[in-house]
Amino acid sequence: MTKFTKVVTRISISFALFIVFDGGVINVQDQSDISQLRGCTSFTGTISIIGTKLISLSIPKIQALQGTFTVQYNQYLTSFSLPDLKSASNLIFTQNKVLSAINVPRLKAVTTFNINSAPRLRALSFPVGLNSIENFEIADTAIELVKGVVASRVSSLGLLRNVNMRSLALPDLLSAESLEIIGNGRGNFQFEAISLSLLGQGNFKNLVSTYFPSLDKVTSSLTYMENSFTSLSLPKLSEIGGTLTISSNPRLETVSLPELSHIDEDLIIENNQNLVKIDGFDKLYQIDGKAEISGDISTALFPSLEVVGRGANVESSSSSVGCNGFDNLRVGDVKVNKIDCSLDADKKDYSDVQETITKSDDHHSKPANSSIIFDTQEPATDQKQEHTNTNSEVKQQQNIYIANMNGADKINLFGQVKGHKLLSPIWAFEEFHMLMESEDN
């Protein structure tokens, strides 16, 4: 009998401590509205704290929130606390201009946690360790440090324009569907995830360093733009399921992706002023889309590259640019048997053509750069009819020729491969036509 009494007592205590609020909507305007939650430990529904005159707000006892909790447009609110909260669906903090403290000391799991426009919020911490989070965004805050994120997986992580944030390390992160790190620390931001092996898409802008030593696969696109680091290294990355873009990184000197073998879409490397040598793609075999490389490039080496599905264009302001890095190239399903990079294409003199081009109208003028162009796109119908009298020998050889117009500071590539014209922009149609006419004459 005694044992039975003890069991009943425990159940009574349990019910007394665990109060469930299910299916409700609470719009909070002052502290009295919070009284509806007095003693509540689990809440399902919507709580909105919008446009209030509250200065400080604490909601104790609640351990679980299922639904959406919104704190928005509270111009006087300086501190907010959920001291007992352990798990939540959606926590949204937006446009709270004087909010300086968000306290969630026991929070372990949340589906969505967003903080936007909190210019006085300087710190965010999860003392017991936030080990489960799907969507995490911090934007336009004064946060300097984020502590306690130990999740092994996130769907999306966005750090955007947090001017005081200088670094974030996520050593426990193994996979992420999306990482967007842009405009933090006034361009002086470091981001690392040493265990990250699988990434959906990544967009990295205004960083001084990134460190992903374990990253093996990117299923979508990967973008590095306007960063200030001098080297980019992804030592284990083997496949990119979208486009790789490396653009406008003024201090970048070296790029190393030694294990990368396949890019499902495009390779774009452009406007990196100090990147003069591209030689970090030792195993890159196939680009299903196009390759666009431009800048002050003196060397572009792709020793294993055999397939470029939609053509390649290498343009350089350096007169020493070479094409020996494309020795194994196929354009589409056609193997390129020869790339001749010399003062004249196929040992022919085109100095008279250079003179003709130099004297051409302004709208046919050429940029002062060097270019190696592979492009399998068919020209438009009117262009195709205008330039059908191509040299038959070139048609048969299935070779690609690069002509340095008798020492001009530009190299153009053109040719014919199984009916596919290999063309630069519109002025290259005219150059190609003039070259072929010159050869025929």
Structural description of this entry:
This protein is mainly β. It has a domain at 285-441. The chain is 12% helix and 41% strand. It comes from Ambispora gerdemannii.
Helix content: 10-25%
* Chain oligomer state: single chain
Q: Main sheet, how many strands, which sense, barrel?
A: 22 strands, mixed
Overall outline? elongated
Poorly predicted segments: 1-18, 334-441
Count of helical regions: 5
Radius of gyration, whole Å = 30 Å
Can you count the beta strands?
A: 38
Derived from helix and strand composition plus strand pairing, the structural class reads mainly beta
Q: In whole angstroms, how far apart are the ends?
A: 116 Å
- Average pLDDT, all residues: 77
State which percent range the strand residues make up.
35-45%
Subcellular location: Secreted, Cell wall
Main location: secreted
InterPro entries: CWI-Assembly_Regulator, Rcpt_L-dom_sf
Keywords: Cell wall, Glycoprotein, Membrane, Secreted, Signal, Transmembrane, Transmembrane helix
